[in-house]
Q: What sequence folds into this?
């Protein structure tokens, strides 16, 4: 039996499914991931990307932060791909209970998914650090230099930067969803980003499936491992 057929059988059997995804979910929409050979971490900048995306860098080199942020993390013109659309379809059927994502690109929401747990926040929500006024992604990405609020304060993306803690309510909701589901599908993530990757340890359900181009530390625990592109698999599912 083909791997996608095995996955289809599991999906047909389960009514409480959770998808846990990473950068590999969005690469087929044209967004670069971080750690692959042609990912952001292997591009040449004055500072490494993980430094430029840290809270201390945001605070001390705000203008340089925004140059990188606007250049590399603007997804306003990016559209959802096969995977995003399939997960929306699965949610509409009442089978998929949550999408837990490490991505900040807003593509699950663009595809229409409702219960999206944003572990690392989103570029689509931004707020003034002085008065708390909220701004959309268009305002920030289309601004010149450092985006400023009408009150004069600096605007910060609602993104969890390096050195910042994850939001506790999102973490608790993700752990609850994982611990209660029958089928956990992990897709497009190398499972090396902590603490996010550790949440899969709460899974107690029936089937654990991993779909990722490269092997992960959780492969040996999975009921089904597929080393193929997500789009190639999800395009075959009904």
A:
């Amino acid at each position: 039996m083909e791997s996608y057929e095995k996955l289809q059988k599991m999906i047909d059997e389960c009514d409480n499914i959770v998808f846990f995804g990473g950068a590999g979910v969005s690469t087929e929409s044209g967004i670069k991931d971080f750690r692959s050979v042609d990912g952001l971490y292997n591009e040449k900048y004055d500072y490494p990307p993980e430094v430029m995306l840290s809270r201390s860098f945001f605070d001390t080199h705000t203008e340089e932060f925004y140059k990188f942020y606007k250049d590399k993390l603007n997804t306003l013109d990016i559209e959802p791909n096969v995977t995003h659309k399939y997960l929306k379809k699965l949610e509409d059927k009442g089978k998929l209970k949550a999408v837990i994502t490490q991505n900040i690109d807003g593509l699950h929401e663009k595809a229409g998914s409702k219960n999206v747990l944003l572990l690392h926040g989103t570029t689509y929500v931004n707020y003034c650090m002085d008065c708390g006024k909220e701004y959309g992604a268009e305002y920030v990405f289309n601004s010149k230099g450092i985006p400023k609020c009408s009150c004069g304060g600096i605007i910060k993306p609602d993104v969890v930067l390096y050195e910042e803690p994850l939001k506790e309510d999102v973490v608790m909701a993700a752990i609850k969803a994982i611990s209660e589901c029958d089928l956990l599908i992990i897709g497009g993530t190398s499972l090396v980003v902590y603490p996010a990757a550790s949440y899969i340890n709460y899974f107690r359900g029936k089937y654990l499936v991993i779909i990722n181009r490269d092997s992960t530390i959780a492969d040996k625990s999975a009921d089904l491992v597929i080393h193929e592109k997500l789009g190639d698999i999800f395009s075959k599912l009904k």
Observations:
- Strands lie at 17-21, 96-101, 116-118, 121-128, 134-135, 155-159, 183-187, 207-211, 224-226.
- The first helix runs from residue 3 to 13.
- The CA atoms of residues 95 and 235 lie 18 Å apart.
